Each structure stands twice: as structure tokens, then as C-alpha cells.
């Protein structure tokens, strides 16, 4: 008889506490800020660290908390800043915004030893090659994170301006503007 | 009353000095000496560049295929004369940047020998699809300067079952008279080309619109079209930009093309008169597009005129032929003065889009210095697309490109009417061109971000997979060792 009442009371206790825990999990759930998720989704996601934060998520958190400006992401440039502004509902004046210079890695064929270290660290697989073969950078896939520069033993990887071709040539912004020419 | 109704159909626009008198009465010169060397860019059209089918050292006849088209929107390139292919390499393109483009280099042998042509066929015995195929194979593109592959447009017209084909004989750009002269001299060929196009698109009627400052061309075209009831030749007022398809459609048919739509949405399609003539040649004579009429004009040209020029001829040779005074030439422009491109050097090839070469003197290009906007709103009245140029330029100046798009930046056709009328000399159209390029660059950057994410994802998956495989292999090796050990033990027991 004692055995039965012990089993019953402990089972009831277990059920009640379990139910309480379930309710707590549902209503007192600790959520991450959803805006951080949205900000991170817009970012390049290569965890390159050019912003000074360890990765894209910490940078997104800093923007959400107002600790970093929306122009923090160098690979994203002003286009990303405009998207952030639209998402966060803040107005930005980009008239004095200097577009960060975008550089891509390039292998100097004279000094490459084919050590394969660079393409192992490349987050976007932008470097192709094989052991003891000269490596090459696929310019369209390079994000300019410079991770390969750090590991290259012969300093044959250097950052260069991307080549201007008919595909990416653009008109420059008109320069001659007397003060208040367009008011 | 009718004319009053029609004048409401013209929105915006300007009346620049036509400057056509120097060349309009001179017949097209066909004695241009064949150049020793030709430079034929592999992309002279909207779409994908053509892929070469010849090799360095090959002998090619005039009209022989040099490079075939690639993909849905593209056009092939043919040899403009007979000779030897000396190289296939990068050469500066006729573009304001003069950046290199893949080009076939040819040395001509002076014989100008055509490849053996197929016997001409009756175009009206061919199916409509066959017409498109042959026009595409002949490398015909929009000759007014847009260079959209003509065959793609014919297919588009047939699929959309358009009701009217418009033929643009407007030639509203100042200086240019190449279409004018072509209509005066080869009206029969143009009308034949229009009939072939109507057959190829299965379209019942065509209207040719010619500006009323070209009475001789109008008379010639009217006479040539007299026997064909489906082709109507009409005069349109001299008004820039009359040659814009939406302007001409609105004037001739009264239909308004929706802002985010195409001309085919209102059952109309427009081709240039020179395109009609090229199609006439392509179908009647099996002659691919290897030459075109180019107007050489401008204050620095001592003997301006229209010339039949092989594609790939260097512009510098044309300048010499028309005795252009290089010392007085302050700016070299390809196309018309309103929408053409200033070229930094003259050693650039003539391409399918080259309607004119203008050697302008300092007097012709001088404009006053830029001054403050006085809010006169002349740019707004001049805009044929009904936009607000001054507001758009303001927003672009403060880098608010999205805000400029909101008020219609994407509907800007860069016709230059706003810059032309601005009394303060504000480079309005330059702002819009800059913004259009910048938006395209941003779109590319966006695309790259998406691609980068995909690449990173793939890489992470791969690394995971490799590690899993390694772990599995290690487990398998261990299992094999254990199995071997137990077997050995068992043997020892026996």
C-alpha cells in the first residue's frame, strides 16, 4: 500500500513539475533579437573580419545595439548600408560616404610555390590549384578578406584593384558642382 | 484639327539645329578605299559576344562567318572583305573608355572576293521561322544604334502577334543623314525589306515615319511603297527625340506604351530603315551584314558626306578620307551629338552601330560653365518621358539613388533633352548615366553577395562531408584490425 501511494505521489509531482517546465519553456523563452537575424541575412557571411568584429553575427549584433554604424561592412559598401537603413528605419546621408576601395587577391606566378596553404583557408573557394602547381584566384569569387595573404609563405599573394573591363566600366559622378548648383 | 490632335501626342522634346544641310544632298560615296587592315570586334550587339570559328592564319572570303552567335540573344560576325586572319586578341573598343574587347584582326588582299553565294530564293516562299533564322545568321542587328539582334525582335513580334510594324525613318539626331540618303537612294530595297519583315512576323501592316525635314526621302519612299497597300509612308514633325520608339508609337498610332512594359504590349514593334535594308540584302541576296552607311560630319570635316564603309575600318581612315582637320577637331563623337559617345582616340573600328562619326570643333561643343539651378523647370517640360530631371539629379547628387528610382530614374532614356535646354548648364543626363551605372554595379554586388553565400555554404558542407568520411574510414580500419586480431587469436587456439 505504502509503495503504491509513493509511486502515485511521485508520479503526480513529476507530471505537475513537467507541465510547469513546459509552460515556462513556451512563455518565458529567451529569444535572440530577430533584427540581428535579418541583419545577418543581408551580410556577405564570409566571416572575413574586415569590420573589426570576429564575424558577421557579432557585427550584426553591434549594429542592432547601436554600437556600430550601419556603414560598418566594407565588402557590402554603400549598397548594404542603404539596405540596413531601410531595414532599421533610419535615415542616412551618404553624400560624404567614401566607398571603401575594393581589392582582390592576385597570385604572382613568379613566386608561387604551389604550397596549397592559401586555398585551404579561402572561405569562398576562390583560389584554385594543386600541390606544386601555380595557383590562381578566381576574381569573381574573391571577397577581399585577405585570409590567404596571411598564410602565404612567399608573399606571392598581393591585393590588387579589380581589372576595369567593358563589363564593369561605369560613368563617374559629375564633378563640377558650384555650391548649391542644384538646390 | 487632326494636326492639332496629333501635336498633343508629342510630349517634351527639343528642337536642336538640324545641321544636316552639309551632307543631305550628297550621294553616298562608294569609292572608299578598302583598308589594308580590319579590326572586327566580336561583340557589336546587345547580348553575348560571338565565339570565333576561324583560326589565326585562315584565309577568309568576304561574307564568310568569323564568329557564331552564342545563346538566345547574340549575333554572328562575318568577314567584311577577303583576306587573312592575322590575330584574335584584345583591341580597344569604340566606347568612351576605349577599353579592350575581343577582336578579329584581318589583313585584306584587295580582291574583295565574296564567298560563293547560294542562289537567291523567293522570300515569300520561305516560312516565317526561316526568315528569322536567315536574318539571325546574317548577323543583322538594329542599325539605329541600339544593336539589338533583329532576328530576336522578329520572333518577338511573331510570338506576340503584333498588329503594326513601325519603321523609323525619323533620324532626329542632328548632323546624321545616313538614313535620309539610304531612303533617297535605295527606297525600293528598304520597302522590300519591310515586306520581308511583315512576312517574317506575320503582321498585316507597316507604317513608315519620316520627319518632315526630309522631303526627298519621303517622296522616294512614298513612290516605292505605292504598289503595296499594307505599307503606309507618313510624315512626322521634325522634333527630337522623334526616333524614340515610344514617341513615334504615340504619334503614329496614338497608343501609350506602359512605363514598365514593351512596345509589343500595345501590339507594335519598331525597326530602323537601315535594318530593313540590311534584311533585304540578307534574304534577297544572301549577303550578311558586312558594311553600313556612315555619316561623317562636323565642323572639322572639310569634305563631309555619307560613305559605305566595311565593318572593322578604323575611324582614323574615315577621317582622312573626309579630310578632317585634326588640329581643329576638338571632340570626336560616334553617333549623333545628342546621344552619341565621345571617343578618346580615332584608332577605333567602325561597328554595326556606327551611324555617324562627328569631328566637332571647339565652337560646336563649347558650353558655358555650370551655374546654380534657377528652378525654371525647362528640363521638366523638355523631358519626353515625363520625368522630373531636376529632382532626380538632386537626389542622385546626395547619393540617394533609391529615391531617384522612386521618381522614375529607370524610365530615363538618356536622350539629353534636359541637359540641352538647361540654362544653367547642369550636366543632368550625366547624373542619370552615372546613377544607372551605379545601380547596375550595386545589382552586381548584390548578386556577388548571394553567390558568396552559396560558395561558403558549399565549402562548409564539403568540409563536413570529408570529415565524416575520414571518421567512417577510421572506424572501418579499426573494425578490420579487431576482426583480424580475433581471427589470429582463434587460429592460435586451434
SSE order and pairing:
The complex is a heterodimer of chains A (183) and B (494).
Chain A: H1 2-27, H2 34-42, H3 56-64, H4 77-88, E1 104-107, H5 117-121, E2 127-128, E3 136-137, H6 147-151, E4 157-160
Antiparallel strand pairs in A: 1-4, 2-3
Chain B: H1 2-7, H2 21-24, E1 37-41, E2 51-52, E3 59-60, E4 65-68, E5 77-78, E6 83-92, E7 100-108, H3 128-137, H4 150-159, E8 164-169, H5 178-185, H6 187-201, E9 205-211, H7 215-224, E10 231-236, H8 245-253, E11 268-272, H9 273-284, E12 291-297, E13 305-310, H10 315-321, E14 329-334, E15 341-343, E16 356-361, H11 362-365, H12 378-382, H13 389-397, H14 401-406, H15 417-421, H16 428-493
Helix pairs in contact in B: 3-4, 3-6, 5-7, 6-7, 6-9, 13-16
Summarize the structure.
The complex is a heterodimer of chains A (183) and B (494). Chain A has helices spanning 2-27, 34-42, 56-64, 77-88, 117-121, 147-151; strands at residues 104-107, 127-128, 136-137, 157-160.
What pattern of helices and strands is seen along the backbone of chain A?
HHHHEHEEHE
What is the count of helical runs of chain B? 16
Architecture (CATH level 2) name of the domain at 2-34 and 136-292 in chain B: 3-Layer(aba) Sandwich
Helix content of chain B: 25-40%
- Can you tell me the residue ranges of chain B where pLDDT is under 50 for at least 5 consecutive residues? none
Mean pLDDT figure of chain A: 84
Strand order, sheet with most strands of chain A: 1-4
Oligomer: heterodimer
Strand order of the largest sheet of chain B: 13-12-16-14-15
Protein structure class of chain B: alpha/beta
In total, the number of strands of chain B is 16
N-to-C span of chain B: 120 Å
Shape of chain A: elongated
Which class do the helix and strand fractions of chain A yield?
Answer: mainly alpha
Kindly report how far apart the N and C termini of chain A lie: 94 Å
Broad CATH class of the domain at 2-34 and 136-292 in chain B: Alpha Beta
Reported for the largest beta sheet of chain A, the result is: 2 strands, antiparallel
Number of strands of chain A: 4
Sheet of most strands of chain B: 5 strands, mixed
**Average pLDDT taken over every residue of chain B:** 91
Amino acid at each position: 500500500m505504502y509503495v503504491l501511494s509513493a509511486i502515485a505521489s511521485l508520479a503526480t509531482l513529476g507530471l505537475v513539475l513537467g507541465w510547469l517546465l513546459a509552460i515556462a519553456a513556451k512563455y518565458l523563452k529567451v529569444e535572440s533579437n530577430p533584427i540581428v537575424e535579418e541583419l545577418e541575412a543581408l551580410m556577405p557571411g564570409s566571416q572575413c573580419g574586415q569590420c573589426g568584429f570576429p564575424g558577421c553575427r557579432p557585427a550584426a549584433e553591434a549594429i542592432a545595439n547601436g554600437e556600430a554604424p550601419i556603414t560598418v561592412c566594407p565588402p557590402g559598401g554603400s549598397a548594404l548600408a542603404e539596405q540596413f537603413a531601410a531595414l532599421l528605419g533610419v535615415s542616412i546621408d551618404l553624400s560624404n560616404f567614401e566607398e571603401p576601395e575594393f581589392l582582390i587577391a592576385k597570385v604572382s606566378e613568379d613566386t608561387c610555390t604551389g604550397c596549397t596553404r592559401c586555398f585551404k583557408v579561402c572561405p569562398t573557394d576562390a583560389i584554385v590549384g594543386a600541390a606544386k602547381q601555380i595557383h590562381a584566384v578566381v576574381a569573381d569569387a574573391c571577397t577581399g578578406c585577405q585570409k590567404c595573404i596571411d598564410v602565404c609563405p612567399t608573399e606571392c599573394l598581393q591585393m590588387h584593384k579589380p581589372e576595369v573591363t567593358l563589363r564593369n566600366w561605369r560613368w563617374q559622378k559629375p564633378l563640377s558642382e558650384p555650391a548649391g548648383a542644384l538646390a | 484639327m487632326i494636326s492639332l490632335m496629333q501635336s498633343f501626342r508629342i510630349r517634351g522634346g527639343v528642337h536642336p539645329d538640324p545641321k544636316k544641310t552639309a551632307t543631305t544632298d550628297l550621294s553616298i560615296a562608294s569609292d572608299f578605299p578598302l583598308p589594308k587592315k580590319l579590326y572586327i570586334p566580336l561583340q557589336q550587339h546587345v547580348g553575348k559576344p560571338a565565339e570565333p570559328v576561324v583560326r589565326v592564319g585562315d584565309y577568309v572570303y568576304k561574307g564568310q562567318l568569323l564568329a557564331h552567335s552564342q545563346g538566345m540573344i547574340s549575333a554572328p560576325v562575318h568577314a567584311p572583305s577577303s583576306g587573312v586572319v592575322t590575330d584574335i586578341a584584345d583591341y580597344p573598343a569604340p566606347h568612351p573608355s576605349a577599353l579592350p574587347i575581343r577582336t578579329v584582326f584581318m589583313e585584306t588582299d584587295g580582291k574583295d572576293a565574296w564567298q560563293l553565294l547560294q542562289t537567291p530564293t523567293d522570300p515569300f516562299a520561305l516560312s516565317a521561322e526561316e526568315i528569322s533564322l536567315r536574318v539571325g545568321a546574317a548577323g543583322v542587328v538594329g542599325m539605329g544604334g541600339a544593336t539589338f539582334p533583329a532576328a530576336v525582335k522578329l520572333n518577338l513580334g511573331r510570338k506576340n502577334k503584333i498588329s503594326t510594324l513601325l519603321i523609323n525613318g525619323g533620324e532626329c539626331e542632328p548632323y546624321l543623314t545616313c538614313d535620309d540618303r539610304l531612303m533617297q537612294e535605295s527606297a525600293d530595297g528598304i520597302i522590300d525589306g519591310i515586306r520581308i519583315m511583315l512576312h517574317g512576323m506575320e503582321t498585316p501592316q507597316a507604317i513608315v515615319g519620316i520627319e518632315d525635314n526630309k522631303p526627298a526621302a519621303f517622296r522616294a519612299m512614298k513612290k516605292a511603297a505605292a504598289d503595296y497597300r499594307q505599307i503606309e509612308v507618313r510624315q512626322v514633325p521634325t522634333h527630337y527625340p522623334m526616333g524614340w520608339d515610344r514617341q513615334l508609337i504615340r504619334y503614329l498610332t496614338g497608343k501609350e506604351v506602359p512605363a514598365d512594359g514593351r512596345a509589343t504590349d500595345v501590339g507594335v514593334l519598331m525597326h530602323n530603315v537601315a535594318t530593313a535594308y540590311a534584311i533585304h540584302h540578307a534574304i534577297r541576296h544572301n549577303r550578311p551584314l558586312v558594311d553600313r552607311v556612315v555619316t561623317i560630319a562636323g565642323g572639322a570635316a572639310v569634305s563631309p558626306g555619307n560613305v559605305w564603309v566595311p565593318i572593322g575600318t578604323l575611324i582614323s581612315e574615315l577621317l582622312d578620307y573626309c579630310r578632317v582637320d585634326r588640329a581643329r577637331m576638338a571632340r570626336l563623337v560616334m553617333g549623333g551629338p545628342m546621344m552619341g559617345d565621345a571617343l578618346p582616340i580615332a584608332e577605333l573600328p567602325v561597328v554595326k552601330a556606327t551611324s555617324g562619326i562627328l569631328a566637332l570643333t571647339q565652337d560646336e561643343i563649347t558650353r558655358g560653365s555650370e551655374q546654380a539651378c534657377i528652378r525654371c523647370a525647362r528640363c521638366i517640360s523638355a523631358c519626353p518621358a515625363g520625368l522630373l530631371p531636376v529632382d532626380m539629379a538632386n537626389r542622385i547628387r546626395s547619393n540617394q539613388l533609391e529615391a531617384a528610382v522612386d521618381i522614375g530614374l529607370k524610365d530615363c532614356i538618356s536622350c539629353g533633352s534636359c541637359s540641352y535646354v538647361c540654362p544653367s548648364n547642369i550636366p543632368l543626363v550625366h547624373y542619370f548615366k552615372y546613377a544607372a551605372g551605379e545601380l547596375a554595379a550595386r545589382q552586381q554586388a548584390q548578386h556577388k553577395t548571394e553567390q558568396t553565400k552559396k560558395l561558403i555554404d558549399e565549402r562548409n558542407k564539403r568540409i563536413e562531408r570529408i570529415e565524416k568520411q575520414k571518421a567512417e574510414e577510421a572506424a572501418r580500419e579499426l573494425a578490420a584490425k579487431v576482426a583480424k586480431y580475433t581471427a589470429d587469436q582463434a587460429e592460435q587456439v586451434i
